[in-house]
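Subject: for your reference before the review

Hello V.,

The reviewers asked for a structural picture of the protein, and I figured it would be easier to keep everything in one thread rather than splitting it across files. Below is the amino acid sequence we used in the manuscript, unchanged from the supplementary table.
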Amino acid sequence: MSPRLAIVGAGVVARRVEKRLALAHDGRSVVTVDSRLVDLATSRRLDGVDVVVLAQQGPHHPAAVALLDRGIHVVSVGDQVHDVAALLEEGDRADSRDAVLVVGAGMWSGLTGLMARHLAGSFASIDEIHLALHGTAGPACARQHHRALAGTAVAFDDGAFTSMRAGTGRELVWFPEPVGAYDCYRAELPAPMVLHRAFPQVERITARMSANRRDRFTSRLPMLTPPHKEGGVGACRVELRGADASGARMTVIGGIAEMVATAAAATACAYVEATIRGSMRPGLVVPGEESVDTTSILRDIVRFGVRLQEFTGVPNS
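And here is what came back from the structure prediction:
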């Protein structure tokens, strides 16, 4: 019997999730709902649904609580810092309902967390993780990018979280081709909080996003021009630093160059597949944690159309 799946949202990522899940499963078992019109706590449309992907604009925490209370598995692609922080506190609720709650299941922090866990296999120990992001999915993502440059950036440094002004800390970052090099800045991103849950032993975790001068100078103003229906090719970069078995310092870098909505949807769908397989225990699941079968999830992400890359320092002919 095909699992019953639901997607909350109507944006670019939600539509792509719906299309991929409909192709992977019986399309009749995949439904889309609008949380603005449907009470997720009582809607009959969700009767018998096994997994819900939250891909709507705005906070996901209230919807996740309503769904978990119904015993429904939840996969959230939300990336608002305060919302993610609230979701990270709902592990006990999910566990008591025998439900899985996946937090940060989009490209950011979902894919970067999985890639960090995969790359960590090359080390005897890791002490630094540095993330960078370029590009946006749909209009809601573009607005969130705009707000993130005006907010408060969070990093984990020397055993404690620190706060800094977003839009500072310029760093030139080389993303996989064809994206190339962009100046990146601190931004209000939840990735350090999420990855700290998966890598509690790591001493330093930072996250930056690309921005130009106009992005930074206008970030505290309303967007001057309407965002595109979908952004162009985006990218993410994951850099790990640590030591090998002999104690020598080493750095390993991975990344992708892909449409952001495609990468976010593929990651969310891969977590849905893992939930259906029953390969994740009930309760809170964060990308990159050791208890998750990272290899299988990454294989599903590739199957859903995303090419993973690792920097080797040697150009391919």
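For the response letter, the relevant points are probably these. The longest helix spans residues 260-277. DSSP finds ten helices and 15 strands in the chain.

Happy to draft the paragraph if you're swamped.

O.
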